[in-house]
Amino acid sequence: MVAAATLHAFSTEMLVGSMTFSVIATVLCLGESMFEKLGEKAQRGLDQSAYYAAIFSLCCIPVVALTGTASGDASASPVLVNKMLLSGLCLGLWIGVVHGRRTWGPEMWSNRKMGFVHTGFVCAGYTTAAMLGSIGSVITRGETVGDLFGIWPHFDNAPAISFGMSMVLALLSLSALLVVIFVQPKGEAVES
Amino acid sequence: MRRTLLLVTLLLLVLCVPPLSANPGGTGDGNRDAACGGSCHGDPGLSEPSSAVLTFSTDRDSAYVGGPISVTITVTEMELSSRGLVGVFLLSDTHGVADTPQDAGWTILSNGEGGSTNYAEKHAFDAESGVTMTWSLLAPSSEGTYDFYAAVHHGGDGAARMKISDVNNVTVGPVPDNLPQMLPWDAMTSRSLGEPTDLSMPVVNATSVALEYRIGEGPIATIEATQDADTWVATLPAALSDISLSYRVVMSNDEFTETTGWIAVSNEIEEYNADIFAVRLQSMALLFASLALCISIQRRMSRSPQKSLGEPEAALISADQTSMVVPTPSVAPIDMAPSLALDDPRRPAGWTDEQWLHYGPDHIAQNSGGGF
C-alpha cells in the first residue's frame, strides 16, 4: 500500500503543475488581448490550454483534499485547520474560474474588462493554492519559498468558530449561492 | 533566434538548480538508521562532507548487563546554515539497516531532548560551542563489546553535509553479585504542565532508591522513593511553566551505588483541538461564498446594456406604469397676457415671441414696476 501522505504529495504536484500551466496560459491570453503580438490562432490555443488545464486542476483538488485529510489529524493543528479552510476557498474560486470561462466562451478575450476579471479570478485561485502548498512545505520541510517575499502568511493561528455559528455561515453562503444560481438571470457567451 | 534564446534561457535555469537537496527545517526527532542519509539529505553520495569534530564520551568506562550508562556526543567546528539546525545520531552500526542502539539490544531511556530516540535535532548557537547531546542508556542483556558511532547531518555553505565518526567501543560486563539494577523500564520523558508525576521504578537489589532532579543545569534536588512490592515509587513535583527538567534514579545498597543517566522531561503544552465538523462547515461556507461571488460577477458582466434592453416584454410592461395615471381633463390655458403686446417697447432685444409671452410679465414686474 502507498501511504496517504505519498498520494497527497503526488496529487498536489499534479494539481500545482496543471494550475500553473493554466495561469500562465491565461495571463498570456490577457497579454495577447491587450498587445496582439501572437495572433488569433495562438490566443485560441492558449485559451483552450488554460481551460482544459483548469478543468484538470479542478478534478485534482478533491483528490488532494481527501488524501490530505487522510494524511493527518487536522483537528490537532491550527495550521492544518487553516489548510482545510483555504481548500474550500480554493475549490470555490477554481469552480468559478471554470464556470466563467464556460459561460463567457472563447470570445471573452475580445472584451478586455472580462479578460481582466477572469485573470483576476485565476490569480486569486492560484494564490490560494500557493498558500496551501506553502503550508504543506512548512509542515514537511520547516520552511517555504514564500518566506522570500517577507510578507507571506504562516497561518499559525486558526479562527475559533463554534459549530452552531459554522452551521449558520454554511447555510447563509449556501443560500447566497442558490439565489445566484436560480434567481439571477443566466449569463451568456460573448459573441464575436 | 527567439526560440534559441528561449531554449538557452530554460537550459540555464535548469543548470541553476543545485544537485543537492536536504530538509533545512529538519525532519524531527526519531529512530533512524544511518541510511537516513538517503532520505533526509538526498543521496549520501551527493552530500558534502562535514568539517565537524565529533567527540564521543561515556560517564563510565564500562557498563554491566542491563546497567545504566550515559553517552555524550559533542559536535563542534561544523559549517552551519542560517538556521543552525544540527541532527545528531547515536548509531550501533553504519550498514544502513538496523543501525540503532535498540537494534543492538540497548534501551534508550532518554536522548536528553525530551524523547527516547537515537536521532535528535538541536539548534547550534555557533560552530565553536556546537551542540552536545547525552543519551541515557540501559545496557543489553548479554555481555560483550559493543560498537557505537556518532553521526551528524547539517547544512552549511549552501550544501547538505554529513559525517560519521570512527567506531567507539563500550564494554558490557557481567553483573556483580548484589548490584542494584534497573529492570527494563519505559522512562517518563514527557508530561503535562502543572501535574505531579508518580514514577514507578522496577529496581532490584537496592535497599534505598532516590530520585534526583534538576532544572536546567541547576542544583540537584533529591526525593526518596518508597518501596511498593517490586517497584520503588517517587513523585516528581509539578512543573508550572515550560522548564527544562531532568531526573535520574540513584539505586543503593550496602556495597554499591548505581545511577542512571539524566533523563530529560519535555512538557506537553495544552494541545490544540478543533471541532473538525465545524471546520468542515466553515470550509464549505468559504466554498459556497467564493463560488457565489464568482458566478454573480460573471453573470452580471455577461449581460450587456443592449441585452438588458432586450428584456421580455412583460418585464418592460410591468415597469411602465403610465397606464395607471388617470388622465386629467384638459383645461383651457388661461390667457395670461392678452394685454402683453408683442411690439411692447419694454420687450428686451433678442427675446422670441414665446419667451416674451412666458417671461414678459415677470420682466415687466421686476424692471418697470408692473402694469401692462
Taken in chain order, the helices and strands of chain A follow as HHHHH
Largest interface: A-B, 55 and 39 residues
**Number of DSSP-assigned strands of chain A:** 0
Mean pLDDT across every amino acid position of chain A: 89
Strand content of chain A: under 5%
Gross morphology of chain B is elongated
Please give the oligomerization state of what you see: heterodimer
Give me the secondary-structure topology:
The complex is a heterodimer of chains A (192) and B (372).
Chain A lengths: L3 H32 L4 H32 L6 H27 L7 H30 L21 H20 L10
Chain B lengths: L1 H15 L31 E2 L3 E6 L3 E3 L3 E9 L8 E7 L15 E4 L8 E5 L7 E8 L5 E13 L2 E6 L3 E6 L7 E2 L7 E3 L4 E5 L1 E2 L3 E8 L5 E4 L1 E3 L2 E6 L8 E8 L4 E3 L3 E6 L7 H26 L3 H5 L3 H7 L33 H15 L5
Parallel strand pairs in B: 1-10, 3-11, 13-22
Antiparallel strand pairs in B: 2-4, 4-8, 5-7, 5-9, 6-8, 9-10, 9-11, 12-15, 14-19, 16-17, 16-20, 18-19, 20-21, 20-22
Gist of the model:
With about 190 residues, chain A is mostly helical. Chain A is built from 5 helices and no strands. The relative contact order of chain A is 0.12.
Name the features.
heterodimer; A: 192 residues; mainly alpha; 73% helix; B: 372 residues; 7-stranded mixed β-sheet; 6-stranded mixed β-sheet; 5 helices; 18% helix; 32% strand
How would you sum up this structure, described in words?
The complex is a heterodimer of chains A (192) and B (372). Chain A is mainly alpha-helical. Chain A has helices at residues 4-35, 40-71, 78-104, 112-141, 163-182. Chain B has 5 helices and 22 strands. In chain B, the strands form 5 sheets. In chain B, strands 1, 3, 5, 7, 9, 10 and 11 form a 7-stranded mixed β-sheet that branches. In chain B, strands 13, 16, 17, 20, 21 and 22 form a 6-stranded mixed β-sheet that branches. The interface between A and B is large, with 55 and 39 residues.
